Amino acid sequence: MDSITHIVLGAACGEVVLGKKLGNRAMIWGGIGGSIPDFDVLATFIMDPLSSLAFHRGPMHSLLFVCLIPFLLAPLLKYLYHKEWHQKLAWRITGFTIGVILYIAAATILSLLAGLLTSSFPWLTILILLAIGIYFFYIRYKQIFQNETHFEIASIKEWIILFFVSATFHLVLDTLTTFGTRLYWPFSNTRVSISSIAIADPLYTIPFALFILGAAMLPRINSKRRMYTYLGLAISSMYLILTFINKKNIDTIFEKSLQKENITFQSYITVPTILNNLLWYGIAKQDSNYVYGYYSIMDAEPVFKNLASIRGNHHLLNSFQGQETKQVLPWFSNGYYSVIDKGEGCYLYSDLRFGSVNGNMESDKNHIFKFDLKEQNGILEMQEHQASPENRGEDIEWFVKRIFGVVNH
Hints:
Blueprint: H1 3-22, H2 24-33, H3 49-55, H4 63-82, H5 89-118, H6 123-146, H7 156-175, H8 202-216, H9 223-260, E1 267-272, E2 279-286, E3 289-296, E4 305-311, H10 324-332, E5 337-343, E6 346-351, E7 370-376, E8 379-382, H11 393-403
Antiparallel strand pairs: 1-2, 2-3, 3-4, 5-6, 6-7, 7-8
């Protein structure tokens, strides 16, 4: 899922494991532990586009990695706290500054999302987030620079548990998305993908974050800290359970919709659209062609209406058999992809698992997840630039209306 969600869940894990001893420091280290697997995005600076795409959600998102990394980090943290680096003014200023930067980044993302959904400038969202930020960091300023910061020192075992739990829950969340993870690397390259929740879902993240933020404002010895943390974990976990139930129901509806239209298929997937769990996208595979449609649980009838088809054109890559690009991209897309010949050795590769921006897959301009490919000296290579759809106002309007069942196409 998105970085903010991983930080929030990691912070909750940190509070549960070491909150009584370390207070908000446990949340910070839990948030870091919950973010470590995503450090694999740094591979983009040293790898070619194809290799970095395959590497992301790969080795650093495996069970092997989360079992090993705590044993590397725990002794380091134990050493740092033993040397009392945390008491140095520079350390406090650095930690406070990083917290402010992270909050500004999270607030900016939330404001942008609010603006996209409302198609207007999100004044109210910005004012609310600004007020929360000012109050929270005023409390943190007093805690860090004005009050004494005595706390108990954690053992290596406790540090190991903190990093193991926070990193493991990162993997759990990512396996619930469509992108998936290579959970069993290096023993298997299969990408585990349940597709029960979108890669960013405010209904999961925002209530959870508010509870954790509320806990962070209280002293570490206050019993309400743990109560708020457990409430946040309980509510977010119940939401995840609801997404599982929703997923099972959507699968049944999509199967029945295909059967009603006498459509035969080899396999299918259903995927929640971004930022919600109401509007779902379903796509069924027929050899190299596909049938797709959208359904919202707010629709009047439980059926995927206006099913449409799209050609995969897989044959366009036949001349590149055995090449890395031809092998990696279809594997990455789990077989759900289309290819368009743009001429002069250029191709557009679309990962069809993520649908389109306006429900229409006929135009490749609407495809959400796509890559430019180019043949050079008989070798097919993935380009640095990732093609992206235009953010048109009418598409956002369709998306919002479709979520609530206002439109059926």
